[in-house]
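Chapter review: from sequence to fold.
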Amino acid sequence: MLIRVFLPVESRASSGVLKIVQNLGFQVVNSEVVDFELPSIAGGSKRLSDFKGKWIWLNFWATWCGPCAVELPTLESIHQEFAGKKLAILGVSIDQGASHLVRKYLVNKKIEFPNLHDISGQISAKYQASSVPSIYLISPDWK
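The token string follows.
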């Protein structure tokens, strides 16, 4: 599993947060967050920037990924626990198949947190999400 985090590492105030994040197993990445818009599995589309101002747990995953199947219910629990607070869970399926198959998979697993579909693989390539699951933790100030 690949875990990355975007944080303002030069900020003195972030040193405590940085230490916590590193202790959780995240690798700090000194690069800019890339905004994107993708079709939502629920219909319509969403942008990453729709969640700006919150911590964003961005999770690239696939229906054929065993570790992803184990992880999704935990992410759903986190989503339910932090609903309406400063944490957003956002899934991005990299499945090449039709969105309705991804939707069926999520419904069967009772996953309700927002999920987008990167059918072309362009967004996962921009984020260098070369394996799944790949997790990115983005700070509220877009770092």
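Two observations follow directly from the output. Confidence is low (pLDDT under 50) at residues 5-13. The beta strands are 2-6, 27-28, 37-39, 45-47, 55-61, 87-93, 115-117, 134-138.
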